[in-house]
Amino acid sequence: MTDESTGSREAEARRDESGPERLDRNTMELLNELRVANTGIQIMFAFLLVVPFQQGWKHVDGFERTVYFVTFLLVALATFQLMAPSIHHRILFRRGEKPFLVRIANRLAITGMICMALGFVGIVLLISDVVVGAAAPGIVAGATAVVVGALWFGVPLLRR
Fold first, then answer.
1. Higher confidence at residue 55 or residue 71?
2. Which of 65, 86, 106, 124 has the greatest number of C-beta atoms within 10 Å?
3. Rounded Cα distance, 87 and 43, in Å
4. Is there a contact between 27 and 98 (Cβ–Cβ < 8 Å)?
5. Cα gap 135→128, rounded to integer Å
6. Over the stretch 133-145, which tens digit does the pLDDT of each residue have?
7. Alpha helices, H only, the chain
8. Strand, coil or helix: what is 47?
């Protein structure tokens, strides 16, 4: 494996683009990635918003309510983090802050996706507990955490 900064510099040098062009490309790539995440977060948030208003909600126990609330907070936090780069860009538009915007948006996207991954695990745990109960929720939620963790974070971190 090559040193991260050396590999990154070599890749950037092969592109034959200026610093501003690279920042523009990085911004567009990041915004496109956030658009993909946006669909998932909208579906998750919509699901979580309607759950307490369903008729069966009054039958959920304390554990399920706690899992729901923690999951709801994680998905809300993911939503805030994944939306923030667009808002930052609008506020700082034409202010020469693109290096800052790319750097902070990258961090927010990663932490937002971590919260989103934990939200998926929470939703799977909640649904498994309501539908199946017993030991299945722990096993299914654990397997979900492993799969999402490996696919979203493990593969790129190993490559890095």
1. 71
2. 124
3. 21
4. yes
5. 9
6. 899 999 999 999 9
7. 4-15, 19-50, 62-92, 98-131, 136-148, 155-159
8. helix
Q: Of 44, 54, 73, 67, which Cα lies nearest the Cα of 128?
A: 67
- Decide: 85 and 31 in contact? Cβ < 8 Å: yes
CB 116 within 8 A of CB 41: yes
2 confidence band (pLDDT: 50, 70, 90):
very low
Residue 1 reports pLDDT greater than 90: no
Query: Using CB atoms within 10 A of its CB, is residue 58 exposed (0-12), middle (13-18) or buried (19+)?
Result: exposed
3-state secondary structure of 149: helix
Q: How far apart are CA 54 and CA 50, in angstroms?
A: 7
